[in-house]
Design brief:
Elements lengths: L5 H20 L5 H15 L3 H6 L7 H7 L5 H12 L13 E4 L10 E4 L1 H22 L8 E5 L6 E2 L9 E3 L1 H7 L3 H6 L1 E2 L2 H4 L4 H12 L4 E6 L1 H12 L12 H4 L5 E4 L8 H8 L4 E8 L2 E5 L8 E3 L6 E6 L16 E2 L8 E7 L7 E11 L4 E7 L13 H15 L3 E12 L5 E11 L9 H15 L1 H8 L7 E5 L3 H8 L17 H9 L3 E3 L10
Parallel strand pairs: 1-5, 3-6, 3-7, 7-8, 8-9, 18-19
Antiparallel strand pairs: 1-2, 4-5, 9-10, 10-11, 11-16, 12-13, 12-14, 14-15, 15-16, 17-18, 19-20
Helix pairs in contact: 1-6, 10-11, 11-13, 14-15, 15-16
């Protein structure tokens, strides 16, 4: 095996950063790259059974593709994915599929099993490098590439897929699949926390093991979900003689720590705590990665959106949320548009065509473009994790921003929250009600948080952020928010009970049903609330 010296890696990092900087300075809308991705992906899938059944042809035009191939959800692919699991070749992508990704199931509560072909794994590896180079190009140096990279994720253990035939296919988180095909030079020079610790699934033990292993290492980059990163920081900072705080912030422990890579959830509620835990000089770098593919990365200040990775090997399409109907998805193909036709400020459901054989696949995310000359977007929420029981159309982004603004005004810090509808029985039989907010704030606070303060300020913030919400509040079709301030540990207990503690798992922020809210109610014994001015009915 050829061992690549560290000096060579450093020289290559500098050269690639210069190339990335030149490329990112160009105002490239990415249309040509997307046409190349479309031609390559449709050409490869045209040689598969699913591709032929869908009418795919090598060299086909986009307008023909748009007419022939219907947008599809996960359930539409399950029969083909099951055949791939059994070892059938050339079903959705040429050849056999050895790996399958298990998703976190944040939206539905049920994990999905998606194919992870060798081509898709290659996409993740190349796109991850491109995303990292957007950071080094943005900050103008390669210090993040001069040391080791600590990846804080779930267990990398892969389990055999039931019913698969030799060679036996395995399934796990995308991080575990990519890790098992990691180049030897990357493992040697960069990868932490090492293969043995990465395989651990006991989250508390894993954090302690990482804290012990990394104390003397030159960590220059840390990647993880914000909430779990804060837990790691606590474990490391309190690891000392007799439990005394040994390190006020991680930059003192790791003097060369340059970059914190995050994504998956809005960072706003965690930003001040993360800054205190990491250190003032650590750069934050946001990425947008899903189980289906690597979508975007930060190349300018985060408020301007993340740059779409148009040359990363995925083909992107967009369905305006004004036309979205999950029950009529197969008939909405004519409403779907390519990158060339998107407009800034419009909310779109995102569809992907990928080198795993997913074609026009609705991944369930909603995005909004901040600019189109250089395609930069923001994550808005999930198609089925939003508040719309009364036609109010409140996204996860709007809910998070409204709550964060309230807390910033009063010096409060959000630990976790969830929003759900509550329904009212009226004499006329109309469906009325409002939103119920379950909120855990960090203690102690200088100003005591009260629901009577939070509720009207949330209400005002949501009206400022959404015309539909404001219209329904003015017409009294929607009541003021009901706020429940829960005791510490309620959200942790919910996540543990539902198998979502640690790794890539996230708390669903809002739903248009009461599945999560009723479970939180069953777990809560003490809370402060604003009594809603209507009769609550569980549905």
């Amino acid at each position: 095996m050829i061992v690549v010296p560290r000096g060579v890696v450093n020289l290559a990092a500098g050269w690639m950063t210069l190339r990335a900087a030149r490329r990112l300075r160009r105002a490239d809308p990415g249309h040509a790259a997307q046409r190349r991705a479309f031609a390559f992906l449709t050409g490869r899938m045209a040689a598969t059974e699913s591709g032929r059944a869908a009418g795919l042809e090598a060299g086909m035009r986009y307008d023909t593709f748009n007419r022939r191939v219907a947008p599809r959800a996960y359930e539409d692919f399950v029969p083909s994915i099951d055949r791939m699991k059994r070892g059938e070749p050339d079903v959705m992508w040429p050849g056999l599929c050895r790996y399958f990704v298990l998703t976190a199931g944040t939206a539905t509560g049920q994990s999905k099993c998606l194919p992870a072909t060798d081509a898709l794994v290659g996409h993740f590896q190349q796109a991850a490098l491109a995303a990292l180079l957007t950071h080094t190009a943005r900050v103008g140096h390669t210090r993040a590439l001069q040391g080791r990279h600590l990846f804080l994720g779930g267990s990398t253990v892969l389990t055999p897929v039931e019913g698969s035939h030799p060679p036996v296919a395995t399934a796990g988180e995308i991080g575990g699949i990519v890790a098992c095909q990691m180049p030897a030079w990357f493992e040697r020079h960069f990868y932490e926390p090492g293969a043995e610790i990465a395989r651990m699934d006991d989250w508390a033990a894993k954090l302690q093991a990482i804290a012990e292993r990394t104390r003397g290492l030159n960590i220059t980059l840390l990647e993880g979900l914000p909430s779990w990163t804060l837990m790691l920081a606590d474990a490391i900072r309190t690891q000392g003689p007799r439990g005394r705080t040994a390190t006020p912030f991680l930059k003192l422990l790791w003097p060369q720590l340059d970059c914190f890579v995050h994504g998956g959830v809005p960072i706003g509620p965690f930003q001040s705590d993360l800054r205190a835990a990491l250190g003032a000089e650590v750069s934050f770098h946001e990425i947008y990665r899903a189980a289906e593919g690597f979508i975007a990365a930060q190349d300018v200040e985060a408020a301007r959106g993340l740059r779409l990775l148009t040359d990363g090997g995925l083909f992107f399409e967009f369905l305006p949320m004004a036309a979205f109907d999950e029950h009529n998805l197969a008939n909405l193909g004519s409403k779907v548009i390519p990158l060339e036709e998107v407009q800034a400020g419009v909310d779109y459901a995102l569809l992907l065509t990928t080198p795993a054989g997913l074609c026009r696949y609705l991944i369930g995310d909603v995005v909004r473009f901040m600019s189109t000359e250089v395609p930069r977007l923001v994550y808005v929420g999930r198609t089925n994790l939003r508040l719309d029981a009364f036609g109010e159309q409140v996204t996860e982004k709007a809910a998070t921003e409204a709550l964060l603004a309230v807390c910033q005004r009063h010096g409060w810090t959000v630990v976790n929250f969830h929003v759900a509808p509550v329904f009212a029985d009226t004499l006329t039989g109309q469906r009325r009600g409002g939103h119920e907010w379950w909120i855990e704030l960090k203690a102690p606070t200088i100003e005591t948080p009260t629901a009577n303060v939070i509720s009207p300020e949330l209400d005002t913030g949501l009206m400022q952020r959404g015309d539909e919400y404001a219209a329904r509040r003015r017409s009294r079709g929607l009541e003021p928010p009901a706020v429940r301030l829960v005791m510490p540990g309620v959200f942790e207990q919910w996540m543990r009970k539902n198998g979502r503690w640690g790794g890539e798992n996230k708390m669903p922020r809002c739903r248009s049903d009461r599945l999560v809210a009723d479970q939180l109610a069953d777990l809560s014994r003490f809370f402060i609330e604003t009594p809603p001015p209507y009769v609550i009915r569980r549905t």
